[in-house]
Amino acid sequence: MAGYGDFAYFYDEFNGEADYDALYAFIRERFSGHGLPGPIVADLGCGTGELTLRLARDGYDLIAVDGSPDMLAMLSEKLAEEGRQGLLLLEQDLTCLDLYGTIHGAVCTFDTLNHLGPLETMGRAIEKAGLFMEKDGLFIFDVNTPYKHCKILGNETFILEDEDAVCVWTNELQEAQRRTRISIDIAYTGDPVHYKECFYEYYCTPQELEALCERHGFRVLEIVDGERFCAPLPDSQRLLFVAEKERQCQS
């Protein structure tokens, strides 16, 4: 799983093209249209909290969960800036999720599941979400597609820059393991030391994910392109799943 240590501190700058407003509009419409059984929503893999904050502003009771203390520290700073209180922040591995009670909805976005591990590991995270989800709750999550891994990320190198740092992002596609090895080299202005991180993103088919959801008590209501919010296309790079909790997980 990605640690996102130093990268957490300029994740927002380098993720500037992400359309959080469009994503949140989709989530809000699905939550509202479905009618959650209550107000408690977990943001699983919350990162620096851009989606968490939007949910909180709309009145949901938020539990923000991430495996990176650095990401949670960034979210905590944003909450302090807004003077917002009452959010529960948990540093946890999503495959070992342990909440204090049940939830009525959950989101897991920006390829968090891809970072967790291969298919069986993704399944453990879905199982944990189902364990704490009340019946009729909604779980909205996304994944990067095999197309993105094989055709876009591939064996490419990307250079990301802002005024304070340069990040060299190098990919190595490992098709036999259905994953991409990602190496990040971060150079801050005026700092001779480079900060390096390495992690993997795994991929699987939408059919495999739908089967995992069914196994763990969810019924997939909808799958859409996660960037264009239309029906999935052959070149879709991200898919959004909308799943309803129907029953207890199978053993």
Would you give an account of this structure?
This protein has 251 residues and is of the alpha/beta class. It folds into two domains: 6-144 and 204-245, Rossmann fold; 148-201, S-adenosyl-L-methionine-dependent methyltransferases (N-terminal domain of TfIIb, Single Sheet). 31% of the residues lie in helices and 33% in strands. It is built from eight helices and eleven strands. Helix 2 (20-34) crosses helix 3 (50-57). It starts with 10 loop residues before the first helix and ends in a 6-residue tail after the last strand. The model has no long low-confidence stretch (mean pLDDT 91). Keywords: Methyltransferase, Transferase. GO terms for molecular function: methyltransferase activity. InterPro entries: Methyltransf_25 (IPR041698), SAM-dependent_MTases_sf (IPR029063). It comes from Anaerofilum hominis.
